[in-house]
Amino acid sequence: MSTIQDPIKPDRSNLAGSRKDRPTGSTHFGDNDFAEETTPEIGDATWGEVGRACCVHDAMGWGKIFIGVCIACFFLYFFLFSLELLGNAAKVLGGCSAGGLMSEDTNPVAALVIGELATALVQSSSTTTSIVVTLVGAEAVGVKTGIYLIMGANIGTSVTNTIVAMGQMGSGDQLERAFAGATVHDLFNLLSVAVLFPLELITGYLFRLTSAMLPDSVSKDDKWNGPIKKIVSPLVSRVLKPNKDVIKEVAVGEVESCGAYYPVYCVDGIEDYKHCVADTKGIEGQGVGLITCDKKVGCPAFFQHGASKQDDATSGGICLFLSLVLLLLCLMGLVNVLQRGLMGMSTRVIYKATKVPGVFAILIGAAITILVQSSSITTSVLTPLVGLGVIQLEQMLPLTLGANIGTTITGLLAALVSGKVEALQVALAHLFFNISGIIIWYPLPFMRKVPLEGARALGRYTRRSRSIPPIYVAIVFFIIPLLLLGLSELFQQRSVDEQGRLEGARALGRWTRRSRSIPAIYIVIVFFVIPLLLLGLSELFQQGSVGYTVLGALLVIFVAFATVRFVWWWKRQEGKEKFLACLDRRQAMSATTKTLPEDMQYLKAKVGQLMEHTGLPEDEEEGVEVEALKPVDEEEPREMSDATEEEPLDMTGTSDSKGE
Question: How many helices (H) and strands (E) does the chain have?
Answer without folding.
Answer: 28, 0
